[in-house]
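Document type: protein sequence-to-structure record

Subject area: structural biology

Format: plain text, a pair of labelled lines:
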Amino acid sequence: MLPELGQLFLILALLTAVLQAALPLAGAQRGDARWMGVARPAAFAQLALVAGAFAILTHAFVTQDFSVAYVAENSNSLLPLVYRYSAVWGAHEGSLLLWTLILALWTGAVALYSRRLPAQVVARVIGTLALVSVGFLAFLLFTSNPFARLLPAPLEGRDLNPLLQDPGLVIHPPLLYAGYVGFAVPFAFAIAALLDGQVDARWLRWTRPWTNVAWGFLTIGIALGSWWAYYELGWGGWWFWDPVENASFMPWLAGAALLHSQAVTEKRGSFGAWTLLLAIAAFSLSLLGTFLVRSGVLTSVHSFAADPTRGLFILVFLSLLCGGALLLYALRGGRVAASADEARQRFAPASRETLLLANNLLLTCACAMVLLGTLYPLLADALDLGKLSVGPPYFGTLFIVLMAPLVALLPFGPLTRWQREQASRPLALLAPWAGLALLAGAIGFFLAPQGAWKTAAGVAAATWVLLGTARFVWSRRQLKGSRFTAEMLGMTLAHTGIAVFLAGALLVEALEQQREVALAPGQHLDLGRYRFELQGLDERKGPNYVAERAHVQVLRDDRPLALLHPEKRLYASGGQNMTEAGIHPGLFGDVYVALGEPLGGNAWAMRVHVKPFVRWIWLGAALMALGGFVTAADRRFRRSPETP
């Protein structure tokens, strides 16, 4: 009975969402306070219903109710308890239910913390969020029902994909989805502003924390996915430019542009229409990426043919929501721009507005480049233009071309005045630090044992951004009577994170050493300062797998460093093989060993890496996310929107 109750909850949630969308939006248009008053209670009711359905599906996994088809396909009796929880969102139906739950949570949070906003604004925002919920709930019920029964119930399930049986995958999807769905809030405010015909800086100030928090969650989610791929897939890479990664990276780029554009619109009244367009784009890309991944289109365009109902629903939903938002922007965006204070909109070529405009254009171009490279092969295949592959040479080269000027301009932004500036002033402030950055790059060039140019670029870029950020902090501390606000601290942390990330990404690319080799017990491999000795192998039994485990002694400069245990696992259900790398982590570099296939003669294929500064990549991402959260905590954003 519980699965049927879960399905009933979803049906009631859909009806509630329809009510939550229709009455508040109509009430805002007619000025009817009673209809607008439905928004908050309906949002809380929908949250309770979706949470109840999610809890019932979780209970089905924990109790191993294989009469539910989704449970039978993604779990079995040997699956450890922690992975029964993560299996709830381990496949298509459950991941969409998780998305719907997180959307309901964001909507409930808006309803809870928007009591100081005008009723008309709240009604339009919550009504717009409800329209998104209607689409997801209808998609679940009509094409992706997680509570469908499988009768007679099998005695055993198939198992969760072994790739997903990992602690990182327990928290990665919820955090990633929190970022994806969080962009629905600025999207809803953009729609409300377009319906109202104006962008009020005071209301925009209230939306900025929501954007920062969503971007922070998305940053953590992407970083966790990168970290998982690094240690789980056995290749030692941290970013592959594959379509699934790109699907999350595109809204991140659009969201980064939106953060900066919102700041300009709130403080100076400029970029109003541009801010609205970025809010629409960030959430539209979140929808596009999620649906493409979960529908299987990124793996093969023929997944639409395999499930035409699901594919058609996706296309219709994306067209109505994103296309409708863009149509509304086309019709009313000009009116919104015209409503702004023209005097505040004017700014000189040498000004902070100009730098932030350049920042937005570069980030938007990078996003468009990733979108083109991701979708073009799919479109070419669908149109029978042949099989095409777009990989790292395209993405990596163009991304560096677009990001290099952004990195060069980044330290100037915080030190440049609004509206009008003498270009010589920030240049004079940063000239000594530019010289130090170039000197650091030159030292890196001459000291690098390999990859001299990449080393120089990594050291110079990271030093330039870090010193420029430090110069801004010092300048603020020198101003009498000025406060170093949480917003400034958040920006400082995020820019510091960029510096750390640049150092990690470029230095590991330049200095990494790797070798693929066949080793038998007792043999060793020398790689730079390191020696890897295969001492032997044994068999280890896990809860639902059997593993061949190697024992690899690592020495650095002839001194013992670590004993690593890479594994080759065979899962009992399905017979899938998985690689678990052995990693010795360090702040300044990792030693990484992956066990391959047996080669005969007691030898095994092994992949060995020495990866300097690789952890700085995720440390930089963590600092960027922390910067977003700290910025959102600024007290100025918590003041009443009526306060100037």
